[in-house]
Amino acid sequence: MKTIVTIAAAAGLVALGACSQSATENKADAIEANAENTADVIESNASNAAEAITNNAENAAEATRNAGENAADAVREKADR
Questions:
Q1: Taking a C-beta distance cutoff of 8 angstroms, is the pair 23, 55 a contact?
Q2: Residues 6+ apart with CB under 8 A from 1
Q3: What kind and span of H or E run contains 46?
Q4: Do 30 and 18 contact (CB within 8 A), yes or no?
Q5: 13: Cβ–Cβ under 8 A, 6 or more apart, which residues?
């Protein structure tokens, strides 16, 4: 992901350099582009973290269900003896 963002930022800077804008305007545009790319990375990281948390919670819930079923089965088996 970082590679794609870096490539996109570089392409954007090259495109900005080709414009007939002043150096100050080009610098300001580059700052905005970099901030936008950084914000996109932050959002992507947050999304990935949220997905990982959700997956971990689902796995823990499933493990709890399985442990409960196994414990109940063990009690039933003892009762049947």
A1: no
A2: 41, 44
A3: helix 23-80
A4: no
A5: 30, 33
**By residue range, what is the domain housing residue 43?**
2-80
CA 19 to the chain's CA centroid = 34
Return the pLDDT at 81: 79
**Could you report the per-residue pLDDT of 4-18, keeping only the tens digit for each?**
666 666 666 666 555
Count other C-beta atoms under 10 Å from residue 9's C-beta.
Answer: 16
pLDDT digit string (tens) for 53-80? 999 999 999 999 999 999 999 999 998 8
Domain count, the chain: 1
What is the identity of the amino acid at 41? V
Query: pTM of the prediction?
Result: 0.56
